[in-house]
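Hello Y.,

Per our agreement to keep a running log of every chain we model this quarter, I'm adding this entry. I've kept the format consistent with earlier entries: sequence first, then predicted structure.
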Amino acid sequence: MIELRDIEENDLERLFRWRNEPEVDRWMYSHPPTPEAHETWFAAFIRDPDRKGWIITLDGRPCGSMTLTGVTSAQRRARWDWYIGDAEARGRGAGRAAQALGLELAFGPFGLQRVWSEVLAANEVALRAQAAAGFRREGYLRRHAYKHGEFRDVALLAILESEWAARRVMVLTDLKASGLIVAAPAVKGA
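Predicted structure for the entry above:
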């Protein structure tokens, strides 16, 4: 069962460990942080009302992270980032389910109208996962990220509230039937 819980102070070390996992680091823009840089980032993240973060759990065990940056924007849009940090949870539907739960929060309580992300273009797994959630490719930034001595292309993706609304019941019902989430939420306005 996949659930999201708020990032808490005691997640500092867990997030640092995951961020330094080779499979997570491989797909991120920046190099793995030093412990000091990570502590600085974490302290700023926790205090920033414009950022919201969750720990993805699989059967109650933390397995990944998801964040929205820009939740207080007058434009009602936020940037989306997520990863599965626990290797044992990868390929088990955790990312797919977490994205649906995250979109429910983004377009529900946070009242966003748009969620967007940047994904390294070679990260086919993330691109497929985001497409399955309803994200659409909106752009392509050539040689946009520099890491490990090479420039990398980046795909820009986004989903609008109306696009999620059109597919949410189908996605959530499928996740419920697969046993990945507890229940498919009721349709808004029902």
